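Schema walk-through. Below, the input block comes first and the output block second. Nothing else is stored per chain. Lengths vary across the set, and this one has 179 residues.
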Amino acid sequence: MDQDQEVSFPLPRALDTRIHMRIITKSAVIIVQLTTVSAEEKLSIVPMGSMVYAMPDKFAPNMPLSTQIYKEEPTVDFTTRLAKILVKMTQMPVYVSSSLSLANTGLGGTFEEEMAAMQVVVEIASQRLQHVIKPSNTPAAAAHTGTSNAYSVSLEEVKNKTVGTLKELTIRSTEAGKS
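--- output ---
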């Protein structure tokens, strides 16, 4: 089951900037590393971003537990959100390290640009993690069975671009976990 995969893809809404993602799958843990590189930065050193550990909560599977191992303010929210989404999909502990920069996007990293980047990263990660994703935790399975979890709601909202603000998304996921 041990796998080490690397993939590179364009950062949405940015010219000449790519996201580089490495996914390491072990029998009991997933490690994801993310960074962005623009054409101008290819030879420069990229600063370390945030690192977050998240794990499933056996009493509330839709509300993974997470802790920040290393906090770098510009990347901590994205990193935490991604770690929790991956835990919901796989029901496995996840380490996510991210130095993803949205500075080269059209508007410099607005909420919409961050959600577009999140959507692409989650889609690529879910393709690469098919061997460990639990079928009941995918958006398609949730739609088919009529069930819903915070992951499928959040991803569908991102896909439909109906998410208004980060605060609203946080409130909705908190309310979903309580019901």
